[in-house]
Automatic annotation (TrEMBL):
Binds 1 NAD(+) per subunit. May play a key role in the regulation of the intracellular concentration of adenosylhomocysteine. This is Adenosylhomocysteinase. Keywords: Cytoplasm, Hydrolase, NAD, One-carbon metabolism. It is found in: Cytoplasm. The keyword Nuclease does not apply. Its EC number is 3.13.2.1.
Amino acid sequence: MDYHVKDLSLADQGKNRIEWAEMDMPVLRSIRERFSVEKPLKGVRISACLHVTTETANLILTLKEGGAEVFLTASNPLSTQDDVAAALVKHYNIPVFAIRGEDRDTYYSHLKAVIEREPHIVIDDGADLISTIHKEYPELSEKVLGGMEETTTGVIRLKAMAKDGVLKFPIIAVNDAYTKHMFDNRYGTGQSTIDGILRATNRLIAGSYFVVAGYGWCGKGVAQRARGMGATVIVTEVDPIKALEARMDGFLVMPMEEAAKLGDFFVTVTGNTSVIRGEHFKVMKDGAIVSNSGHFNVEIDLEALESLSVSKREIRKEVEEYKLQDGRRIYVLSQGRLVNLAAAEGHPASVMDMSFANQALSAEYIKFHSTELKKDVYKVPDEIDREVAKLKLNAMGIRIDELTPEQVKYLSSWEFGT
C-alpha cells in the first residue's frame, strides 16, 4: 500500500483517539452499521481532501465499511493529526498522504497522489482537490460521478466555477446543509476557535475587546462564545444585513479601521482575502493577538505585517511575535492558518457527527443519482438533512411531535380562512 505519513509508531495512540471520538458520533455510527450490511458504495473509489482528524477518520471508516476504496489527503498543511494518519494506515489499511507542517510542494504532491487513484467520487474541504483535477487532470474529471464540498470557502469557489461553465461534474454543497452549517459552523467553530486561542496563548478573555471579522455562521459562533467568556465583542462586516443582525444580537459593530485600535484579540472568519491589512496593524495595541479561523491563510495580510516589522520570533508554540519599528508587538497565531485545528483539535466529535453523516449519505446519493444531476452545485437533499437531524435527536433521547392528519390538510390547503 502506498502512503506518506510522518511516523507509523504513532498509530496506537491515534487508534485510541479515533475510538474516543467514535463514542460521541452516534449518527455516523448508525450509518456505518447500515453500510456494513448493505455495502451501497461497493466498487466505488473515493478520494477525500479533509482535515486529518479523529472525526474525519470515523467518516473514512464509514465509507470503507460501505464498500468503498478510500484515499485520504490533508486539506490544510497544519491541520493533520499525525497519530491519526498513522493509525488509518497501520490499523485500518487506508492510504493516507498527510504530514503536519508539510510544505506547499508536498501538499500538492499529496493531492495528486489521491487524484491519480482515478476516483469516482471526491470529497473536498476548500476545493483544492476539485480545482486541481479541473486544472491538471481534465481527462480524469470525465470519470468522476460527483463530489461534495465541506466548507463555505470551497462552496464559493465551486459556485464560481459553475457560473463560469467550467465545472465538469456535479457537487453537493454539504456545507449548506442545515445540520452542517447551523451546528458545525456555529457551535463547532465557536468552541474550537476559542479553544485554539486559549491553548496557544493562555490569555484571559474576560474583560478584553474581542474582534470578530465576519458574521456568518462561524462568526456568530465565535462571537457568542467570546461573549460567554466575558469579552466585549466587536463585529466587523461588509454585509449590511449581517451587520444589523450582529447589532441586534447585542454586539458592537464598526469598521475594522476602528476596531483595530480597540482589539485585544482578533479572529477572521470571512472566507475572503486581506481582511486585516497593513493600515490595521499600524494602529493596533501593543500585544494584540491576531488569528484566523477561515479556511485559507489569506485573511491576514502577513506580507504587510512583515514589511512593518523589524524582527520576528516564535515566542510560544503556535505564537509568532512581530515587533514593529515603534516597539509595539503583534502576535500571530498558527501562521494565520486555521487556529482551531492548528493550535487545538478542531470541532468536537458530537458536532462533526452531523457534518460527516451528511458526507456519508451524500456519497451514497451520488452513487445512485449522479446521472440525474447536471454539472452544478446542489444543496444536500432535504430528506438527507432531515434524516440526519432525526438520527441526532434519537441519539440524544429527544422526541418531538408529529403533524396530525388535520394539520397536514390545513397546511396544504388554501380553503381555510379566519
